[in-house]
Design goal:
The protein is α/β, with parallel strands linked by helices and about 375 residues long. It has 15 helices and eight strands. Helices cover about 50% and strands about 10% of the residues. Strands 3-2-1-4-5-6-7-8 form an eight-stranded mixed beta sheet, sandwiched between helices. Helix 7 packs across helix 10, helix 7 runs antiparallel to helix 12 and helix 12 crosses helix 15. The structure holds nicotinamide-adenine-dinucleotide (NAD).
């Protein structure tokens, strides 16, 4: 095993899921949170997951006992002193994470590898909060982390390449599929997934179709298992709002759809009709717009070396269940058709056509 003992800070949705997965894969894990109740909740979530897996015949009773025994809880950072990798999964707020890393810096040696599960913050900025930023990187797991195989391994500006490779191996050794990523807002997956959801809301705002219709067209044109409105209701629209806002620095196309912006942080769900017919005369326009909102950021990522086309496709398939992975789909549609579709974004938002459009046909080669 590439790391012997892993500390997880934050026993919430992500921390408990990561801990569940690692302990199941044979790693000793210490999970830490600020209160005993939070730690207990995190450990209970792991136990529940293992028991369900046993009921389904996916884990033996002995495996359940062994995985549970590898998990311990703590409310004090000092309990992480013997860990050789520590993954932070606390609130998504720079000052809160920075304060934690500064305190952690004083508790653990400067050779201990430190990782953040941030979705929105710059890994390179967080790395500056500790001595020796070369041992700092992003390990961005996807929800539900206990089962979702994708992890974006994010290279900060100062991350030591050997530590980066070690973490890639660690992910592979713990049954995950790592995607090597540059430190860029949205990394490899949210960079296109969030704008695709945002575009669905724009289509609804413009009255081009109903939510059920847009979901139906998305299933057809991108092969998604569930359409954007079903997924946004699961993720929560307010999370999509924050995620889209985080992509703002990438330019005008990444502005927030009207409804998402107006409703902001409020708790709501999109109404999805029973009948998915909507306005069938607009099916083609909707398909073009959803594909454009997916293809454009993906091509920009390839331009910027955020991740490889093959890894983006792997993430789309495994993390998001896109039946038609974007690069493979672009390759099959061909350069002219992709150029036509992507110009819906470049013309409307005054962006440059990504130069990678020239590679369409062999994006994954
Ligand atoms: N939820 C998702 O779908 C998802 C997916 C990928 C990444 N992320 C990222 O993972 C991180 C955690 O998200 P979450 O959804 O698990 O949040 P959460 O609110 O479910 O859990 C956060 C936990 O951190 C604890 N915490 C807060 N400050 C702490 C501190 N100083 N020391 C120790 N524990 C502390 C809280 O008590 C809470 O239990 C965030 O950065 C988020 O952006 C979330």
């Amino acid at each position: 095993m590439t790391f012997k003992q892993v500390g997880i800070i934050g026993a919430g949705t992500m921390g408990s899921g990561i801990a569940t997965s690692l302990a199941q894969q044979g790693v000793e894990v210490v999970i830490m949170d600020t209160t005993a109740e939070a730690v207990e909740r995190g450990l209970a979530a792991a136990t529940k997951f293992y028991n369900r897996a046993a009921e389904k015949g996916k884990m033996s009773e002995a495996d359940v006992d062994a995985a549970s025994a590898r998990l311990t809880g703590a409310t004090d950072l000092a309990a992480l002193a013997d860990c050789d990798l520590i993954i932070e999964a606390i609130f998504e707020e720079f000052s809160v994470k920075a304060d934690l890393f500064k305190r952690l810096n004083d508790v653990v040696g400067d050779n201990v590898v430190l990782a953040t599960n941030t979705s929105a913050l710059r890994v390179s900025d967080l790395a500056e909060t500790v001595d020796n930023p070369s041992r700092f990187l992003g390990l961005h797991y996807f929800n539900p982390a206990a089962i979702n195989p994708i992890v974006e391994v994010v290279r900060g500006e100062k991350t030591d390449p050997a530590i980066f490779d070690r973490c890639m191996d660690f992910c592979r050794n713990t049954a995950k599929k790592p995607i090597a990523c540059k430190d860029s807002f949205g990394f490899a997956i949210n960079r296109f997934f969030v704008p695709y959801g945002n575009e669905a809301v724009r289509l609804l705002d413009e009255g081009l179709g109903t939510a059920a219709q847009i979901d139906r067209v998305a299933q057809d044109c991108l092969g998604v298992a569930a359409g954007p409105f079903v997924v946004m209701n699961l993720v929560k629209p307010k999370i999509m709002f924050h995620a889209q806002r985080n992509l703002g620095p990438h330019g005008a196309f990444y502005s927030i759809a009207k409804t998402l912006a107006e409703r902001g942080d409020s708790d709501y769900a999109f109404e999805i009709e029973e009948d998915a017919t909507g306005k069938p005369e607009n099916d083609e326009v909707i398909a073009d717009r959803l594909r454009a909102a997916t293809f454009f950021p993906v091509l920009q990522e390839v331009d910027e070396d955020v991740a490889t086309a093959a890894d983006i496709d792997m993430g789309a398939g495994l993390a998001l269940r896109f039946g038609k992975a974007p690069c493979e789909l672009m390759d099959s549609l061909g350069k002219d058709e992709v150029r036509r579709i992507v110009s819906l974004v470049t013309d409307n938002y005054d962006h440059q056509m990504p130069v990678s459009v020239e590679k369409v046909g062999s994006l994954r080669a």
